[in-house]
Request: fold
Amino acid sequence: MSEVSLRAITPEDLPTLFENQYDPASATMAGVPIREEADFYVRRTRTEADPATDTRAVMVDGEMAGDVVSWTDESGRHVGYRIAQRFWGRGIATTALRLFLAELTDRPLQADLLKTNIGSRRVLEKNGFRLLAPDELPADAEPTLHYFRLDS
Ligand SMILES: CC(C)(COP(=O)(O)OP(=O)(O)OC[C@H]1O[C@@H](n2cnc3c(N)ncnc32)[C@H](O)[C@@H]1OP(=O)(O)O)[C@@H](O)C(=O)NCCC(=O)NCCS
Reply:
Protein backbone atom coordinates (compact mmCIF):
# COMPACT_ATOMS: atom_id res chain seq x y z
CA MET A 1 0.00 0.00 0.00
CA SER A 2 1.49 3.35 -1.06
CA GLU A 3 1.82 6.17 1.45
CA VAL A 4 0.28 9.45 0.25
CA SER A 5 1.18 12.78 1.87
CA LEU A 6 1.10 16.50 1.08
CA ARG A 7 3.85 19.08 1.36
CA ALA A 8 4.48 22.66 0.23
CA ILE A 9 5.42 23.15 -3.43
CA THR A 10 8.95 24.40 -4.09
CA PRO A 11 10.45 25.92 -7.27
CA GLU A 12 12.17 22.56 -7.89
CA ASP A 13 8.73 20.99 -8.38
CA LEU A 14 7.81 23.17 -11.36
CA PRO A 15 9.36 20.91 -14.05
CA THR A 16 7.28 17.97 -12.78
CA LEU A 17 4.14 20.11 -12.71
CA PHE A 18 4.94 21.29 -16.23
CA GLU A 19 5.24 17.69 -17.46
CA ASN A 20 2.02 16.68 -15.71
CA GLN A 21 -0.02 19.38 -17.47
CA TYR A 22 1.76 18.68 -20.80
CA ASP A 23 0.07 15.25 -21.03
CA PRO A 24 -2.71 15.43 -23.70
CA ALA A 25 -4.78 12.74 -21.95
CA SER A 26 -4.69 14.70 -18.71
CA ALA A 27 -5.51 18.00 -20.41
CA THR A 28 -8.43 16.46 -22.32
CA MET A 29 -9.80 14.88 -19.16
CA ALA A 30 -9.62 18.15 -17.24
CA GLY A 31 -10.75 20.25 -20.21
CA VAL A 32 -7.95 22.75 -19.73
CA PRO A 33 -5.43 23.96 -22.31
CA ILE A 34 -1.86 22.67 -22.35
CA ARG A 35 0.58 25.51 -21.64
CA GLU A 36 3.93 25.84 -23.36
CA GLU A 37 6.93 26.11 -21.08
CA ALA A 38 7.34 29.91 -20.80
CA ASP A 39 3.60 30.47 -20.36
CA PHE A 40 3.36 27.69 -17.78
CA TYR A 41 6.24 28.99 -15.66
CA VAL A 42 4.89 32.55 -15.61
CA ARG A 43 1.40 31.41 -14.64
CA ARG A 44 2.47 28.86 -12.07
CA THR A 45 4.97 31.20 -10.43
CA ARG A 46 2.17 33.76 -10.11
CA THR A 47 -0.12 31.10 -8.62
CA GLU A 48 2.49 30.06 -6.06
CA ALA A 49 3.01 33.71 -5.03
CA ASP A 50 -0.71 34.43 -4.61
CA PRO A 51 -1.58 34.51 -0.87
CA ALA A 52 -5.22 33.68 -1.70
CA THR A 53 -4.23 30.41 -3.38
CA ASP A 54 -3.26 27.24 -1.49
CA THR A 55 -1.21 24.59 -3.24
CA ARG A 56 0.34 21.30 -2.13
CA ALA A 57 2.53 18.72 -3.80
CA VAL A 58 1.06 15.20 -3.64
CA MET A 59 3.78 12.79 -2.54
CA VAL A 60 3.59 9.03 -3.05
CA ASP A 61 6.26 6.99 -1.32
CA GLY A 62 8.53 10.04 -1.43
CA GLU A 63 7.93 10.78 -5.12
CA MET A 64 5.94 13.75 -6.39
CA ALA A 65 2.80 12.46 -8.12
CA GLY A 66 0.83 15.67 -8.66
CA ASP A 67 -0.71 18.64 -6.94
CA VAL A 68 -3.84 19.95 -5.26
CA VAL A 69 -4.88 23.59 -5.47
CA SER A 70 -7.51 25.84 -3.89
CA TRP A 71 -8.29 29.33 -5.20
CA THR A 72 -10.98 31.99 -5.04
CA ASP A 73 -12.87 33.63 -7.88
CA GLU A 74 -16.05 35.70 -8.05
CA SER A 75 -18.16 32.55 -7.52
CA GLY A 76 -16.34 31.41 -4.36
CA ARG A 77 -13.60 29.09 -3.16
CA HIS A 78 -12.61 26.23 -5.49
CA VAL A 79 -10.54 23.10 -5.34
CA GLY A 80 -8.71 21.23 -8.10
CA TYR A 81 -6.13 18.47 -8.50
CA ARG A 82 -3.99 16.68 -11.04
CA ILE A 83 -2.13 13.39 -10.73
CA ALA A 84 0.50 12.21 -13.25
CA GLN A 85 -0.89 9.51 -15.52
CA ARG A 86 1.48 6.77 -14.36
CA PHE A 87 -0.07 7.07 -10.85
CA TRP A 88 -3.72 6.93 -11.97
CA GLY A 89 -6.11 4.32 -10.61
CA ARG A 90 -4.41 3.77 -7.23
CA GLY A 91 -6.68 5.93 -5.07
CA ILE A 92 -4.09 8.69 -4.89
CA ALA A 93 -6.31 11.63 -5.87
CA THR A 94 -8.98 10.47 -3.42
CA THR A 95 -6.49 10.33 -0.55
CA ALA A 96 -4.76 13.58 -1.56
CA LEU A 97 -8.06 15.48 -1.60
CA ARG A 98 -9.01 14.01 1.79
CA LEU A 99 -5.71 15.21 3.26
CA PHE A 100 -6.12 18.65 1.63
CA LEU A 101 -9.67 19.04 2.98
CA ALA A 102 -8.36 18.35 6.47
CA GLU A 103 -5.93 21.27 6.09
CA LEU A 104 -8.31 23.73 4.39
CA THR A 105 -10.80 25.51 6.62
CA ASP A 106 -12.73 27.22 3.80
CA ARG A 107 -16.32 26.09 3.27
CA PRO A 108 -18.23 25.87 1.08
CA LEU A 109 -15.76 24.54 -1.48
CA GLN A 110 -16.68 24.19 -5.11
CA ALA A 111 -15.40 22.01 -7.91
CA ASP A 112 -16.47 22.39 -11.53
CA LEU A 113 -15.61 19.56 -13.88
CA LEU A 114 -16.41 18.28 -17.34
CA LYS A 115 -19.39 15.93 -17.27
CA THR A 116 -17.15 13.41 -19.07
CA ASN A 117 -14.60 13.40 -16.22
CA ILE A 118 -15.88 10.31 -14.40
CA GLY A 119 -12.67 9.84 -12.39
CA SER A 120 -12.76 13.36 -10.98
CA ARG A 121 -16.44 13.00 -10.19
CA ARG A 122 -15.73 9.88 -8.14
CA VAL A 123 -12.87 11.62 -6.31
CA LEU A 124 -15.28 14.38 -5.27
CA GLU A 125 -18.13 12.04 -4.32
CA LYS A 126 -15.82 9.91 -2.19
CA ASN A 127 -14.82 13.09 -0.35
CA GLY A 128 -18.37 14.18 0.45
CA PHE A 129 -18.98 16.70 -2.35
CA ARG A 130 -22.49 16.73 -3.78
CA LEU A 131 -23.69 17.50 -7.29
CA LEU A 132 -25.65 20.76 -7.37
CA ALA A 133 -29.28 20.43 -8.44
CA PRO A 134 -30.45 22.34 -11.54
CA ASP A 135 -32.06 25.06 -9.38
CA GLU A 136 -28.78 25.62 -7.49
CA LEU A 137 -26.61 26.18 -10.55
CA PRO A 138 -25.00 29.56 -11.23
CA ALA A 139 -26.79 31.68 -13.81
CA ASP A 140 -23.84 31.33 -16.18
CA ALA A 141 -23.52 27.54 -15.73
CA GLU A 142 -21.84 25.77 -18.64
CA PRO A 143 -23.91 22.86 -20.04
CA THR A 144 -20.72 20.76 -20.41
CA LEU A 145 -19.86 21.06 -16.70
CA HIS A 146 -20.98 19.48 -13.46
CA TYR A 147 -20.91 21.73 -10.39
CA PHE A 148 -20.06 20.05 -7.08
CA ARG A 149 -20.00 21.57 -3.61
CA LEU A 150 -18.78 20.62 -0.13
CA ASP A 151 -20.80 22.54 2.45
CA SER A 152 -19.20 21.49 5.74
C1 LIG B 1 -9.07 12.64 -12.21
C2 LIG B 1 -7.79 12.18 -11.52
C3 LIG B 1 -7.36 13.26 -10.53
C4 LIG B 1 -8.07 10.87 -10.79
O1 LIG B 1 -6.87 10.51 -10.12
P1 LIG B 1 -6.65 9.02 -9.55
O2 LIG B 1 -5.56 9.09 -8.54
O3 LIG B 1 -6.52 8.07 -10.67
O4 LIG B 1 -8.07 8.79 -8.82
P2 LIG B 1 -8.41 7.59 -7.79
O5 LIG B 1 -7.51 6.45 -8.05
O6 LIG B 1 -8.46 8.19 -6.44
O7 LIG B 1 -9.86 7.16 -8.31
C5 LIG B 1 -11.05 7.60 -7.73
C6 LIG B 1 -12.20 6.89 -8.39
O8 LIG B 1 -12.32 7.32 -9.75
C7 LIG B 1 -12.30 6.19 -10.61
N1 LIG B 1 -11.61 6.64 -11.81
C8 LIG B 1 -10.38 7.21 -11.89
N2 LIG B 1 -10.08 7.49 -13.17
C9 LIG B 1 -11.15 7.09 -13.91
C10 LIG B 1 -11.44 7.11 -15.30
N3 LIG B 1 -10.59 7.62 -16.20
N4 LIG B 1 -12.63 6.61 -15.70
C11 LIG B 1 -13.51 6.09 -14.81
N5 LIG B 1 -13.28 6.06 -13.47
C12 LIG B 1 -12.11 6.53 -13.04
C13 LIG B 1 -11.58 5.12 -9.83
O9 LIG B 1 -11.93 3.85 -10.28
C14 LIG B 1 -12.10 5.39 -8.45
O10 LIG B 1 -13.43 4.96 -8.33
P3 LIG B 1 -13.91 3.81 -7.32
O11 LIG B 1 -13.32 4.15 -5.99
O12 LIG B 1 -15.38 3.88 -7.40
O13 LIG B 1 -13.30 2.57 -7.89
C15 LIG B 1 -6.64 11.93 -12.56
O14 LIG B 1 -7.11 11.08 -13.57
C16 LIG B 1 -6.14 13.22 -13.20
O15 LIG B 1 -5.28 13.90 -12.66
N6 LIG B 1 -6.72 13.55 -14.37
C17 LIG B 1 -6.30 14.75 -15.13
C18 LIG B 1 -6.58 16.05 -14.39
C19 LIG B 1 -8.02 16.17 -13.96
O16 LIG B 1 -8.94 15.73 -14.63
N7 LIG B 1 -8.21 16.81 -12.79
C20 LIG B 1 -9.52 17.10 -12.28
C21 LIG B 1 -10.04 18.33 -12.92
S1 LIG B 1 -11.72 18.66 -12.39
